Amino acid sequence: MELTPGLRAEVEVVVTEADTAVRMGSGDVPVLATPRLLALAEAATVKAVGPRLGDGETSVGTRAEVRHRVATPAGGRVTVTAELREVDGRRLAFVFEAVDEQGAVVGDGRVERAVVEREGFLSRLSR
């Protein structure tokens, strides 16, 4: 595993009705849902480190902090960038920022993940 602070990745999405708070059950307005924003942030963290994990390893989310600052309606484009800031053994700490096509910060926060051995992790689920 060769993980170093500074690894970055981004994901981009055009918000659809399926991404809205109404559809996800997290609110009653047709804008990007906060749980969807978090999912995009996690996707960016996975993309940042996934190719550098060892054979049989994966990462799992363990903690998240999200500030959702600006509403994005369906049809709006959001780009989420995540950067690995800290590696402490198997614990990975990221910061992320989501920006819309006008450059407004839609949201930001932190995501922590843990590197695990995939088969061992899954085998503990069946107990």
UniProtKB/TrEMBL annotation:
This is Putative thioesterase. PANTHER family: BLR0278 PROTEIN, THIOESTERASE DOMAIN-CONTAINING PROTEIN. CoA binds at residue 61. Substrate binds at residues 61, 113. The active site is at 34, 42, 68. It comes from Actinomadura coerulea. Residues 15-119 form the Fluoroacetyl-CoA-specific thioesterase-like domain. It comes from the Bacteria.
